[in-house]
């Protein structure tokens, strides 16, 4: 399928996990893709551009460089994000500011810099990576969940603001996905095997979500076949949000 032929995308956090899988899928389907990340090591045909989403100058420079290299920008995948653990009692103000800076303000900075390019596109779309943590109360995730709730609300507000400009804005909420991030979390657990089993058991499907499954959902929302879809939140969570199966 070459449904992205002629389209140009930037993917933040595109050097790892969900971002990398999305960038590779879009490229396979004909898109030219720049991965904007702290880590610039990506394989061809992906183009790595250094970017720190917490730094407005860095974001503006990276988006300008991407637009010049790709010849414009049609698609923004706002995916860079970091985790945080604990209750409201466990993280200080500096940590709250740090995680919001990446997970929420980072998306704002990237969208703001990319908007002039998206306005010139014939098929403009933004897809934000949210989380099941936006819509379900998960223990020990107060700060992270608050950022992803903000991502979901921001998605709706942006979809309304940019409707008339023909820029669609949607969000994907993954459940626990098998990425290097989760690998790092498991490595820190007292019993990584038991911790992985607990995460799998939390999914109604009994397994973690794959990066390919999340990438496919992001690509759908980013692409021309979703041209009537804006302001939606697509759960890719193995049924975790909506289902209450009997065991
Ligand atoms: P990952 O750690 O594998 O990849 C994240 C990438 O973001 C890395 O390449 C990292 O370098 C980049 N990044 C981090 N801070 C950055 C910054 N300041 N500027 C630019 N790039 C930066 O993580 P992942 O699991 O693929 O997560 C991607 C997104 O998916 C995140 O927004 C995360 O919240 C969301 N998510 C992940 C899961 C999961 O279970 N893995 C579940 C729900 C949502």
How is this fold's topology laid out?
Blueprint: E1 8-12, H1 17-28, E2 32-37, E3 47-50, H2 56-70, E4 75-78, H3 93-119, E5 124-129, H4 142-161, E6 167-174, H5 180-188, H6 192-202, H7 211-222, E7 233-236
Nicotinamide-adenine-dinucleotide binds next to helix 1 and helix 5.
Mean pLDDT: 97
Helix content: 40-55%
Q: Tell me what the CATH architecture of the largest domain is.
A: 3-Layer(aba) Sandwich
* Lateral strand order in the biggest sheet: 3-2-1-4-5-6-7
CATH-derived topology of the largest domain: Rossmann fold
* Domains (count): 2
Order of helices and strands: EHEEHEHEHEHHHE
Structural class: alpha/beta
- Profile the largest sheet: 7 strands, parallel
Bound molecules: nicotinamide-adenine-dinucleotide
CATH homologous superfamily caption of the largest domain: NAD(P)-binding Rossmann-like Domain
Description:
This protein has helices at residues 17-28, 56-70, 93-119, 142-161, 180-188, 192-202, 211-222; strands at 8-12, 32-37, 47-50, 75-78, 124-129, 167-174, 233-236. The protein is of the alpha/beta class and 247 residues long. A seven-stranded parallel sheet has the order 3-2-1-4-5-6-7, with helices on both faces. The protein is globular and about 50 Å long. Bound molecules: nicotinamide-adenine-dinucleotide. Nicotinamide-adenine-dinucleotide is lined by residues 12-13, 15-19, 37-39, 51-54, 79-82, 102, 129, 131, 174, 176-177, 179-182.
């Amino acid at each position: 399928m070459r449904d992205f032929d002629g389209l140009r995308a930037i993917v933040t956090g595109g050097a790892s996990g969900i971002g990398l899988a999305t960038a590779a899928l879009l490229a396979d389907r004909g898109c030219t893709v720049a991965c904007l990340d702290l880590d610039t090591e990506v394989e061809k045909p992906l183009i790595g551009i250094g970017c720190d989403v917490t730094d407005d100058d860095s974001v503006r420079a990276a988006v300008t460089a991407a637009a010049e290299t790709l010849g414009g920008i049609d698609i923004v995948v706002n995916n860079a994000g970091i985790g945080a653990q604990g209750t409201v009692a466990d993280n200080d103000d500096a940590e709250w500011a740090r995680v919001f800076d990446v997970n929420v303000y980072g998306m704002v900075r990237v969208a703001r810099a990319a908007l002039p390019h998206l306005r010139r596109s014939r098929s403009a779309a933004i897809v934000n990576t949210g989380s099941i943590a936006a819509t379900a109360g998960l223990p020990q995730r107060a700060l992270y969940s608050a950022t992803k709730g903000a991502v979901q609300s921001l998605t709706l507000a942006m979809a309304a603001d940019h409707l008339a400009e023909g820029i669609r804005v949607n969000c994907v909420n993954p459940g626990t996905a098998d990425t290097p991030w989760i690998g790092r979390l498991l490595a820190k657990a007292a019993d990584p095997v038991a911790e992985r089993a607990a995460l799998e058991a939390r999914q109604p499907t009994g397994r973690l979500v794959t990066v390919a499954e999340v990438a496919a959902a992001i690509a759908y929302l980013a692409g021309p076949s979703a041209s009537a879809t804006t302001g939606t939140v697509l759960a890719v969570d193995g049924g975790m949000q909506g289902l209450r199966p009997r065991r």
